[in-house]
């Protein structure tokens, strides 16, 4: 599988365009595609940065993408109160890296009974994701996905420790390699091949028209 889409929902037109292209790529290559986009990027660095259309409008757009293309759809949530409403629309919920230890958020996502993709915080060792997995399993949800998205290497720089993929696989969960955010550089897709020899279940990339 490949998880792909815009970082944030810009408009319905853009999302449908990207989803149609992903559908075509998937049909031509035989690779399963999951459409991912955020209705609100609550972790933007700047107060003036575009965050998205908001939850109500964003979920409406994601539902249209799902109905038009039949692609599975994923979005991230930042607060426990968002989980149930988002879970009624999307196929998979994502917990952002900087919130990966938030127990209430993890449990709220788990209780939707939808698959939960948790991005490993840049500040965590891969072994510490065991606690994250246990929190979700404690809420009777075994549909857990873990994503490697880089580790802090000093200030303003991330590196990928591919051994972390093997460590997280030992937790009994599929592991995704985020080839875009883990490099934080345009054109970072060239780094994506490193995830394949490590046996990742999926790749995650940002896709813009």
From TrEMBL:
Q: Where in the cell is it found?
A: Cytoplasm
Q: Name one GO cellular component term.
A: cytoplasm
- Give the family this protein belongs to, as stated in its UniProt record: Belongs to the KdsA family.
Which reaction(s) does its UniProt entry say it catalyses?
A: D-arabinose 5-phosphate + phosphoenolpyruvate + H2O = 3-deoxy-alpha-D-manno-2-octulosonate-8-phosphate + phosphate
User: Which EC numbers characterise this protein's activity in its record?
Assistant: 2.5.1.55
The protein's matches in InterPro entries, at most eight in alphabetical order, are given as: Aldolase_TIM (IPR013785), DAHP1/KDSA (IPR006218), KDO8P_synthase (IPR006269)
Query: Which Gene3D superfamilies does the protein's record reference?
Result: Aldolase class I (3.20.20.70)
Q: Which Pfam families does this entry report, sorted A to Z?
A: DAHP_synth_1
User: Where's the DAHP synthetase I/KDSA domain?
Assistant: 2-188
GO terms assigned for molecular function: 3-deoxy-8-phosphooctulonate synthase activity
Protein name per its UniProtKB record: 3-deoxy-8-phosphooctulonate synthase
What is the top EC class of this enzyme, as a single word? transferase
- Organism lineage: unclassified sequences, metagenomes, ecological metagenomes
Give the main location: cytoplasm
Q: Which keywords belong to this entry?
A: Cytoplasm, Transferase
